[in-house]
Each structure stands twice: as C-alpha cells, then as structure tokens.
C-alpha cells in the first residue's frame, strides 16, 4: 500500500471548496504510487487524481506541474493540472504540497505491439515539439553528472566484475556521448507503466503519458533510448528490430532524426541503460531514510547495458540509407 | 447546412502541422452552427471541434477563447482551446480566424428534469466563481445599453401593441434594474442547447457548457434569469416552481444569493426576456447582409416577457424565509 498520508472524506470535501470541481462524490487511495500519495477523486464535474507530494518540496514542483499544463493545452494526452480558485495549480493539504490532475482513461501495454511502438514514437516526437514552446527550464536531474556522482556512491557496494563494468562504462560515456545533439524537455522515464492506450490496452491510440516528475532538459535522443530499452527489448536482452524500427520511424516522421543522432544512437542506448542500472543500485544500497521507493532489480538493467555494449550496430531507422 | 467555409482534407492536414495533435484521421462539417463554420475533427490524439469564425474578427476573439481556457483549467467542463506550436490558441485558416477546441461528450436535455435543473444551477455558480480569477474583462455586449439601442432600431417595424409593450418595458427596466448587484463574467446564453449532460442526456452530471461567444461582465443574476426563462418555463409561459426552486437552491448552495438579488429577481427575469425578444426581432427585421443566422420566433419571448410581467412574485429559493 503506497498511500502514506491518510485523508478523511471530511478533510477532502472541505479542501475541495478551494476548487471549482463541484461536490466530492467519492475517493480511494491508489496503491501504485511509490513517491507520492495518490487518490482517485470523483466530483460532480468529473474524475480526477489527487497527488500529495511526500518527497518533492513545493519549490521544486512548478516546473513539472506547469509542464503538464503546457503539454495538455497543446493536445498531448497527459494529466492536466486543475487550477484552484486562487488560480494556482499547487495547493497544500495536511501540510504537504498537493495537486489535482485530470484522470485519463486507458491501460498500459505490458507487451507492446509493433503498432503500439509506432504510436508511441509519434507521440514522443509530438511531445518533444510541443515542449519547445514551454517557458520552464530545468536540467534533467539524472543526466551524466548525476551518473558520475551516483557511481561514486554505489561503487563500494559492488563486486569486482560489476565495478569494472561501471568504471568502464563511465569512461566510455565520457568519451563518446556527443555534446551537439538536439536538446529540449524530455520525459526521461517513459516506461511501459507510464503510458496508457485507449480502451483495454490493445488499441494503438496513446491515451495518456504519465508521471513527468523526472522531466528536464537533455538530449532528445536520450528519451528515445530510455523508451527503446524498455519497449523494444527482446527476450535475449537485445533490441527487437521490428519494434525499434517502428518506434524510430514514427518518431522520425514527426521530428526528423539527424545524422548526428544516428551516430550517437549506440552510445545513447548505453547511457540510458546505465542511468537505470545506477538508480536501481542506489535504491538498494543507499535507500533514503523513511522512503518507501519500490526496489526494482538492478540486474535487469545490468543485463540490458551488457547487451547494448555487445551490439555495436543496434537497430535504427528502417530505410535503405541507414548504413548498417 | 451551416458550414460556410469549405475545407478539404488536404488543406486541413497541412494546417494541422501547426499543432501537436498527431495525424488527421477524419473530419465532418457540423450542421448546427449558425454564426461560424464548425467541424468535428478526429486526430491521433483525440476528438476535437474546429471553428472557423465567419463573423467575429480576430481581435474580438481572445476574450472568449482565453475565458474558455481559464474555465477548463479550473475544472469547468467547457470546450478547452488547443494551443498551436507557436503557443497561440487562435490560428488562421483560409484567411479567417480559427480555433480548435476539445470535443465534449454527452447530449442536451430538451425537457430538463428537476435534478438536471439543480445540477445546472450548481454548475452555473461554480462557473461564476471560477471566472472571478479570469483576467479578461469585457462588458456583456447585450446588456441594457444594447437593449435601448436595438429597441430604437426595431420599433418602426412593430405594431402598436408590441411597440407599447416594448416602450413600457424599457421604461420599467430603466427604473427598476438595480445597479448594485454582484457582477462578474456571465455566459449570457445558457439555453438548453448549450448544455450537455453525460451519456444520453438523461443523466444529471453536466458534461459540457458550450458557446461562450456572448459572455461578458454583467449582473450574475442576469445569467440565472436567462437560464430560468429557458429551463424552467411551464406550458403556460410561467415559471415552473419546482424546477426554478431547484435551479436557485443548487446555485445558492455554492454562491449564496443576496437579499438584493432576491429583490431584483422579478425585474431581472423581465430583463432577460426582453433581451431575447429584442435580438429575435432584430434578426427578423434587420438581418445582417450575408448572414445566415437562424431566425427564431420573437413571439415566444414576447409571451415569456408578458408572463414575467404578469407574475410579480415569481418562484425564488424554496426556504421558509423566502418571504412570499
């Protein structure tokens, strides 16, 4: 159970008077959240999600909340924050920052099809383009600098083989990650459980992009690499060519990928694998006191990193000119 | 058929590249519009309505479009304008101003129930409160001054009895409409065809408030009077007490009505009836060249005006203290 802050119906109904959402009709805690307390919230006006932030401070939140509002008003299907009568998206409930967002329909696709990978690629490109007019600017907080700092913290906990792999990958990234790729606000965590497809999860219309709380400015290609590593993995840890090419081709049709991005693709896939191996190592070896972060298996991303290292020519755009 | 500006799929698909809405999947003209060209628009991201403005100029539109955006982000179910990649809600298509808004589900209720009148009353009060933080300010353009000017224009076309009724009502309004009532942005045209209820029109959840192109700052009570005259009319032209009291009680529970508003209620119902009698007379006797405005029967609102004049004690809040 991941609802940390208990709220009564009376507290919630009183707090809702700050909003123009009509009377409270029902609410229930959501078990999935791992960093916040989340509640489904039904009012006379519709269905919403209430988030009470357990870890992020109020001053950290406007970048994320305003980004979601920006993307939603541009037609990107993401949770749209609801403004209170004082015009602010961010409120305070039981002494913690809180926000109400629209509740999106649909289901995630644990085993995405080629068509779903294509739909997601097109949506990711649309999101990158829509975010270009967003005024907020914040670095992606889990970029190369974070990787170096976190590696230093977790290295003492690793056995010799893992330590060697980590040191070697940091060295490789320092030498091979180019500095001149197209940049912008990225989602940075677009795993399968953060995407909803309409209806029963079998459709190909992307009905929701969720959880923008890792978003920040970085190489746009990094977003594609994170996404490919999760969405297009084959059983052997390699990238499934058909799904990867569908993801990239649909993205490319909306935001054309550059020659520089093509050249950077193998290194970027490794960078994306490294980032999640590191955060999982950190969660296991250096858990934050009082935190209830779900501990995911770091070995999964060590395997993905090794597979990316082994594949010097990963799938790219499926065109005659791809040069493989 | 009310689609005046024909658009091809090719023109629309090319124009849509200014937005982050994904590929065009289908579109169809909407027959109901009478002042604009409206199209249903399906894209990879969802369902929308495209409006091409045939009468309003671009400089007149930001007040209305930004109002809808403001209300939508506060949780009032109204069409939400979609921003283009340049961040602007207003675009230009075939030389005319154009906007894309979200398409709301639901149906209108031609024969509203008591419960639907209550739901609408609560929603109208929420809308009035949410609009208080809207920065745009524009007078309601069909207020008392417009009534006097329009009366002068249509009087030459009226027979003696109608002319006498009109002159007498203008005199009455000049003497009896108070100047100190709570004011704010009102919808000003909340007829039954501008409200959607969820599902099949039989539900009581208001799923949409439509057509804000008459909105402006006026007495909030005027909005209630327009609404009551249309939603709560009995077959004899009088106000049905049960529906009127439900509308007002639900409104009152969200924004308490004042003693001044109670005193002004009979005159305000007459003012609302007068405004629609006048616009219908104007549409018939002084049609704008090239306009295809639907001509509605002025006699319907003459009858409503007469019924309101005859009823010095119209239904008000159903409470022991209502003083009837």
Interface with most residues:
A-B, 36 and 36 residues
* CATH architecture classification of the largest domain in chain A: Alpha-Beta Complex
Q: Count the strands of chain A?
A: 9
How many separate structural domains of chain A? 2
Q: Strand count, sense and closure of the main sheet of chain A?
A: 5 strands, antiparallel
Structural class of chain A: alpha+beta
- Mean model confidence by pLDDT of chain A: 93
The CATH topology of the largest domain in chain A is what? Answer: Aminoglycoside 3'-phosphotransferase, Chain: A, domain 2
For the largest beta sheet of chain A, what order do the strands appear in spatially?
1-2-3-5-4
Termini of chain A, distance in Å? 48 Å
Question: What is the 3D shape of chain A?
Answer: globular
Show unreliable segments of chain A: 320-324
Query: What is the string of SSEs of chain A from the N terminus onward?
Result: HEEEHEEHHHEEEEHHHH
Briefly, what CATH class of the largest domain in chain A?
Alpha Beta
